UniProtKB/TrEMBL annotation:
The lineage of its organism: Bacteria, Bacillati, Bacillota, Bacilli, Lactobacillales. Keywords: Plasmid. InterPro entries: HTH_LacI, Lambda_DNA-bd_dom_sf, Peripla_BP_I, SBP_2_dom. One of its GO terms (molecular function) is transcription cis-regulatory region binding. Pfam families: LacI (PF00356), Peripla_BP_4 (PF13407). This is Transcriptional regulator. It comes from the Bacteria. The keyword NAD does not apply.
Length: 328
């Protein structure tokens, strides 16, 4: 038996509303100033009655806009990425855009693949938390679309950046502990060479302390017990008062609680600090002083820059916007 169901198209809507297809198209694209309120209401009623779903591909061909913005984050295992996306979405959606989050999973090749995918699809813009160099991004992103760098200071970037004051915040926190008699620092971090924000934080620590050990944790695969034992070895190898300085909140949450429970961190002989994205880390040990950054605000600020670039027809500058982290 032949299926008599018929999906409504733009001509059906125009016929029912007694307007032209151009008028329906203007309604769908939000150009209501070019029609009367009565006409707009007839089109709306016709769309509802016919349950018409606009063909987004066809609309993109006409408007040259998908209203989609790609956000490539470093690792969705981090609270940072989730809060960043919330901030981005809050601004994009209020301006008629939709954010799509893509996860590079701390893998450089995966990031390159995602960049290529964004380049070949109809995203209106890209907000990027990059591992790749500027030249790599430029070589892959051949299509003209606004780009905003977020969280990673990127020298010689031709695009605007929204970052945290990583160096200054790390130096301030380190100086605070040095002034209070802590002289040994254990930097707990992902691969230092992979991301500029980590290197800036490390530089800030070195600017205020001389006795610094580094313990790198692979984001791809690591043995929790092995890292825990290495931390204990570093904590007990000296009589100096020691600070474990985590360069991201994930490592605070992974490794500090057991050290507190076992008495290695007592806030007298040893303590911990680091960059925190949420209030969770502070609840582990209320006496810990942490560097609170605001990924939601970073994301919202990056989205504001993106929306302005889209309003300006894709024109961009190389401004650097700093959203300060607070040591408290």
């Amino acid at each position: 038996m032949q299926n008599d169901k018929h999906s409504a198209n733009i001509k059906d809507v125009a016929a029912l509303a007694q307007v032209s297809t151009a008028t329906v198209s203007r309604f769908l694209n939000g150009n209501l100033n070019r029609m009367s309120d009565a006409t707009a209401e007839r089109v709306r009623v016709a769309i509802d009655k016919l349950k018409y779903v606009p063909n987004s591909a066809a609309r993109q061909m006409t408007t040259k806009s998908s209203k989609l913005i790609a956000l490539i984050v470093a690792n969705t295992d981090d609270y940072f990425s989730t809060e960043l996306f919330k901030g981005v979405s809050s601004i994009l959606e209020s301006n008629g855009y939709i954010g799509t989050m893509l996860d590079s999973d701390s893998d450089l090749q995966r990031e390159k693949n995602l960049l290529a995918a964004v380049n070949s699809h109809t995203f209106d813009g890209l907000i990027l938390q990059p591992f790749s160099t500027i030249s790599t991004i430029e070589n892959i992103m051949r299509r003209r679309a606004p780009i905003v760098i977020v969280d990673r200071e990127t020298p010689q970037s031709p695009w605007p950046q929204v970052v945290t004051n990583n160096f200054d915040a790390a130096r301030e926190a380190t100086a605070y502990f040095v002034k209070r008699g802590f002289s040994h620092f254990i930097v707990l971090t992902s691969d230092l060479s992979a991301a500029t924000n980590r290197r800036e934080r490390y530089r800030g620590i070195l600017a205020a302390a001389t006795n610094v050990d580094v313990l790198e944790v692979s984001e791809a695969s690591y043995n929790h017990r092995d890292i825990h034992e290495k931390l204990i070895q570093l904590l007990t190898k000296t009589d100096e008062r020691t600070v474990i300085f985590a360069l991201k909140e994930r490592w605070i949450l992974e490794f500090v609680p057991n050290l507190v429970l076992q008495g290695y961190i007592d806030n007298v002989k040893a303590t911990a600090t680091g960059f925190a994205d949420t209030a969770v880390s502070r609840r582990l040990e209320p006496k810990m002083k942490l560097i609170s950054q605001n990924p939601f605000l970073l994301g919202a600020s990056a989205a504001e820059v993106m929306v302005q670039a889209l309003k300006d027809g894709g024109e961009q500058n190389d401004d650097v916007i700093v959203v300060p982290a607070k040591f408290k």
